[in-house]
Amino acid sequence: MPTKQNNIQIIKKLKSLSDKKNLEGMKRFGINPKNAFGVKIPLLRKMAKEIGKDHLLALNLWSSGIHEAKILASMIAEAEKMTSEQMDKWISNFDSWDVCDQTCLNLFNKISSAFKKVIEWVKKESEFERRAGFALMACLAWRDKISSDEKFLKFFSLIKKYSTDERNYVKKAVNWALRQIGKRNKNLCKKAIELAKEIQKIDSKSAKWIACDAIRELTKYKFKK
């Protein structure tokens, strides 16, 4: 594969890797199959490695609206070149939980404004935009190795507030964020369990599910020495 390609060549390559069986599997896992080819993530990662970082190409691929092209874009985009406006535009285009989560995991958590964006996005009304805020929160808790406990404790009020959002893709992301923060260290684990017990008392099916699932996992979690 040449080192420099345009988005048309890349999309042709993605189409050639189309997998109808995987496309059906995406539907079963609640992934939006619209504008998708069914290309598996390992193949996208291989393509991203061969292409290398290319921010302009990433923007063009994202604009295509193709499912796999957007995930690939998140893998080759350059974090230091990503503007606040581009980040907001991308989350407004989220129409599937995997594109949301992959973008937060591959790209957004590496951007300096990530903590600020969490606070902005969780307040959005759109299901996938709010999910993006909590997915990014979870990714930061997982990948950020240097931030203080205090930066994550500031998220607790948001977790509690939006634990009552009954929408499936939001409540699962809230739960993910709470569990991931608790797994950072023993202090945050203790605090996360305390928060979960508070959330458990809220008269909301979503809140009770989030809390019970987090308590079950965090009380059994073993930290590596």
Considering the chains and any ligands shown, give keywords for the structure.
mainly alpha, 2 domains, 225 residues, Leucine-rich Repeat Variant, 0% strand, globular, 14 helices, 66% helix
Overview in brief:
Helix content is about 65%, strand content about 0%. By secondary structure, it is mostly helical.
Please provide a written account of the structure.
This protein has 225 residues and is mainly α. It has 14 helices and no strands. The protein has helices spanning 7-16, 20-28, 41-51, 55-63, 67-76, 84-92, 97-106, 114-121, 127-143, 149-153, 156-161, 168-182, 186-200, 205-218. The longest helix has 17 residues, at 127-143. The termini are far apart. The mean pLDDT is 95.
Task: Furnish the topology, listing elements before pairings.
Layout: H1 7-16, H2 20-28, H3 41-51, H4 55-63, H5 67-76, H6 84-92, H7 97-106, H8 114-121, H9 127-143, H10 149-153, H11 156-161, H12 168-182, H13 186-200, H14 205-218
Helix pairs in contact: 3-5, 4-5, 5-7, 7-9, 8-9, 9-12, 12-13, 12-14, 13-14
